[in-house]
Write a structure and sequence with these properties.
The chain is globular. The strands form 5 sheets. Strands 14-13-10-9-20-21 form a 6-stranded mixed β-sheet. It has 481 residues and is of the alpha/beta class. It contains 10 helices and 21 strands. The chain folds into 2 domains: 314 residues, Purple Acid Phosphatase, chain A, domain 2 (4-Layer Sandwich); 116 residues, Beta Barrel (OB fold (Dihydrolipoamide Acetyltransferase, E2P)), CATH 2.40.50. The two termini are 30 Å apart. It holds the Pfam family DNA_pol_E_B.
């Protein structure tokens, strides 16, 4: 236990063995594999689970006097006959990055065409160019394909408009081929939810976890709000809620290194990145000292994020201990992967810094506003809740990896495919605090509840989220400077 104003706060019950679900040690990596191995594992794992949900739902359906049958290969779909098929989605979008095309243009020396491909029109900078940085979509030309080892078929139908569908999902679709190579969809099913661990009563003790993301500290940061958070957690602001906090979890982006423009580039170097991140020693030292002070009062767990001093691809490995010279010497300081599973007080928590969700948003925010589309309307309010919930329905938390989200080419496994369902799914670095309790279905009729939490960036919101480990209720704590 640790003391808060003379009183003791509870020590959380955590696993003594670190979870290795997203571990990827540098000494064991090989980049000889192709990404198709990752897709093959995902498809193999989820196809059978889709079938478990599709058969009972569609076996009794009657379409014009005909019961739909299952067709194993998308290229064997009969014309104008009701069937259902299972495959992996592929979103074909006008502004989605095309690495092979960019490399081809660079090698051939077509630098003007390369600039047009990567920077929009290249001649007139307008709002459309800015939108393309955060969206791949052009509603007039977007296409969604379903593919398997035999080939692919184009999906159409009004039923698709009220669904969030991106690259890399394994789904089942009911409908019929209305034209050659075009499949009209009337219903969709997702994979069966993976099993969930039982919560043992003797482990599920009282206590709360403070969830904080997006500290984004750098040399120009106002340290006052960071000190307020620190003082509150240490029980120095007279708030009784601080006494109940068992642990602080920092969900990505502790620092925000300002990129420096790379001005000198050769003609043959058009394909390299325009910006190079610079290591900021002062920011790293401040964060280390900040956490070290907190560790005298409360355990701290930290995930890396897109802004942190860590590799770019997912899953991100723990921030190197050399960057936490002081904090790493404390036993109550844990460096986690991103994403990460974390066991605390009998709960199985899945935590992400939010890169996976932010990339999914690029598929569903259109470059041209579609006001009649209620998905566009909900996204325009900066709500991410439905996207986070749907990723649990898909049973893949990072479906767009490796298509548009960097990741390691795993062989024989896809760590982003859920083989177990967590009790809590926490996503950091989101615009607003949001939470819900989603219910996932199993074939046997069991209902699996999952608490979903979107944690706002502290640097923008001056707030953190308290999760009650016993009741799974959440509340927002704001700090006024």
């Amino acid at each position: 236990m640790t003391a808060v104003n003379g009183e003791f706060r509870r020590t959380p019950k955590t696993s003594s063995v670190p979870d290795t679900s997203f571990a990827n040690p540098a000494t064991e990596r090989t980049y000889a594999s192709q990404f198709n191995a990752l897709y093959s594992f995902r498809s193999g794992e989820l196809k059978s689970r889709v079938m478990k949900m599709a058969m009972p739902k569609w076996s009794g359906v009657d379409v014009n006097g005909t019961k739909p049958k299952f067709v194993p290969k998308v290229l064997d779909v009969p014309f104008l006959e009701p069937v259902f098929i299972i495959g992996t989605t592929l979103a074909d979008m006008k502004y989605k990055p095309d690495v092979l095309k960019e490399v081809e243009l660079n090698v051939q020396g077509h630098f003007k065409e390369l600039d047009n491909l990567t920077n929009g029109s290249g001649t007139i900078h307008n709002k459309m160019d800015d939108l393309r940085k955060s969206s791949y979509s052009d509603p007039k030309t977007d296409k969604l394909w379903l593919e398997d080892e035999s080939g692919r078929i184009l999906l159409t139908g009004d039923h698709l408009s009220d669904k969030i569908l991106v690259t890399g999902l394994v789904i089942g679709v009911l409908g019929m081929e209305i034209e050659s190579g075009i499949f009209h969809v009337v219903d969709i099913v997702y994979p069966e939810a993976a099993p969930q661990r039982s919560i043992l009563a003797h482990d599920n003790a009282k206590g709360k976890v403070a969830l904080c993301s997006g500290l984004n500290f750098n040399a120009s940061s106002d340290v006052v709000k960071f000190e307020l958070l620190q003082n509150w957690l240490m029980g120095e602001l007279g708030d009784d809620r601080a006494k109940e906090v068992s642990e602080l979890m920092v969900v990505g982006n502790s620092v925000n290194i300002v990129p420096v423009k790379q001005n000198i580039k050769s003609e043959k170097d058009k394909y390299s990145d325009d910006f190079v991140s610079q290591y900021d020693e002062e920011a790293a030292k401040y964060v280390d000292n900040y956490f070290h002070d907190l560790l005298h009062s409360i355990p701290v767990s930290i995930l890396p994020g897109a802004h942190d001093i860590v590799e770019a691809g997912l899953p991100k490995q723990p921030i190197h201990k050399s960057l936490f010279h002081k904090s790493s010497n404390r036993k109550n300081f844990k460096r986690l992967t991103d994403p990460a599973y974390y066991d605390i007080n009998g709960l199985r928590c899945l935590v992400s810094s939010g890169e996976n969700i932010n990339d999914i948003l690029k598929y569903i925010i259109p470059n041209v506003a579609v006001t009649e589309d209620h998905i566009a309307e909900s996204i325009s309010t900066d709500s991410r809740l439905r996207v986070i919930e749907d990723s649990l329905l898909w049973q893949v938390i990072a479906p767009t990896a490796p298509d548009t989200l960097w990741c390691y080419p795993f062989e024989g496994r896809d760590p982003f495919t859920l083989v177990e369902t967590p009790h809590v799914y926490i996503v950091g670095n989101q615009p607003n605090f949001e939470t819900s309790l989603i219910e996932l279905k199993r074939k046997n009729g069991d209902i699996i509840p999952v608490r979903v939490i979107a944690v706002p960036e502290f640097s923008e919101s001056n707030s953190c989220v308290l999760l009650d480990l016993e009741t799974l209720k959440c509340e927002l704590v704001r700090f006024s400077c």
